[in-house]
Specification:
Helix content is 49%, strand content 18%. The relative contact order is 0.13. It has helices at 2-34, 49-64, 82-94, 111-119, 133-138, 150-162, 181-196, 211-224, 236-248, 264-271, 283-299; strands at residues 38-45, 70-76, 99-102, 123-127, 145-147, 170-175, 200-206, 228-233, 256-258, 278-280, 308-309, 313-315. The chain has 321 residues and is α/β, with parallel strands linked by helices. The protein folds into two domains: 36-147 and 283-310, Rossmann fold (3-Layer(aba) Sandwich), CATH 3.40.50; 150-280, Response regulator (Rossmann fold), CATH 3.40.50. The strands form three sheets. The chain has a six-stranded parallel beta sheet with strand order 2-1-3-4-5-11, sandwiched between helices. A four-stranded parallel beta sheet has the order 7-6-8-9, with helices on both faces.
Length: 321
């Protein structure tokens, strides 16, 4: 009888233990199922109003969908701080985020670290500045791009500028970072517009997206080529640097300036007649487009990784009335 009692007690303990273990497993599964995904937004320079607008748009979207996901917002000090952006990707992966939505500071340098993120199961969405297709192929990964056709947007701005000039007029271009896909595409769009209108591009230099560098380079351009009638800046920060240089050189009203991004300061400059036009790629919505795509892929891991083109519109004084 004693032996039977011992066996019964042992079986009862085993049954309880299994039930407890099964219950704990179920709780863990439930927690896993109920856990909201964490998405990291990694941008370029937070000193640029375009990316401030992007961050604000993303935060607003998350607040409106707080039950669906958590958001971590990051950015780098300036456009050329590639090592810090690489480190941010590594930090976000280590912290256990489920997805990364990134506007890479360089189209080539970020591919390797993003491949490592993908290898660890993190969903990656590329926004704003397209990653280099050849490097992606070399790394044997596919990362979808969500963003505008930068060449098309720059062509719209350049075509509008051409209506204010005469064939044969001299113009100059302020380029972005030359290893950035969007910088290259905007330069090509400007060049196409100027070639179609028979303008002369007599100078083209990189100001690395920065206002102060654009100011310095524009002064040099105007000093060397006083015949310049217009400056085509590949982003609005550089356009602002250009108009400051033009004022310093006493050329206000004599040299036209166009930009790209439609930041608030440039909207005001357009209203005041200091800048002729810009392109709006809807920065406040661009990160949201990427986040929504990431959420879809988190729900359906078998979904096709397709690029998605987003709007880009010409902005002139007429649009800001």
């Amino acid at each position: 009888m004693k032996n039977r009692a011992v066996v019964f007690s042992f079986m009862l303990l085993m049954t309880c233990g299994c039930s407890s273990q099964e219950s704990a497993t179920n709780q863990n599964n439930n927690r896993s199922e109920n856990k909201k995904p964490r998405i990291a937004l990694i941008m370029k320079s937070l000193a640029n109003d375009f990316f401030s607008s992007m961050a604000d748009g993303a935060k607003k979207h998350q607040a409106e969908h707080a039950d669906q996901y958590e958001l971590v917002v990051n950015g780098i000090k300036d456009e050329v701080d590639l090592s810090r952006q690489v480190a941010l990707v590594e930090e976000m992966v280590a912290s256990g985020v489920d997805a990364i939505v990134i506007a890479p500071a360089d189209s080539k340098a970020l591919v390797s670290v993003l491949r490592r993120a993908r290898d660890k199961g993190v969903i990656v969405i590329n926004i704003d500045n397209r990653l280099d297709r050849e490097i992606l192929a070399k790394e044997k990964i596919s990362i979808p791009f969500v963003g505008p056709d930068n060449k098309k947007g720059a062509r719209k701005v350049g075509d509008y500028l051409a209506t204010k000039l005469k064939p044969g007029d001299a113009v100059a271009i302020l380029e972005g970072i030359r290893t950035s896909f969007n910088g290259t595409e905007r330069r090509l769009g400007f060049e196409e517009a100027m070639q179609a209108a028979k303008m002369k591009v007599i100078d083209s230099q990189s100001a690395q997206w920065e206002m102060n560098k654009a100011n310095t380079i524009t002064v040099s351009m105007l000093s060397e080529h006083p015949e310049i009638k217009a400056i085509l800046a590949a982003n609005d920060s550089m356009a602002l640097g250009a108009i400051s240089a033009i004022k310093t050189m006493g050329r206000t009203g004599d040299v036209l300036v166009v930009g790209f991004d439609n930041i608030p300061a440039v909207q005001q400059a357009i209203k005041e007649g200091k800048i002729l036009a810009t392109a709006d790629q809807h920065g406040d919505a661009l990160a949201v487009f990427g986040i929504e795509y990431a959420l879809k892929l988190l729900e359906d891991s078998d979904a096709n990784l397709e690029d998605r083109e987003t709007p880009v519109d010409l902005i002139t004084a007429e649009h800001l009335k």
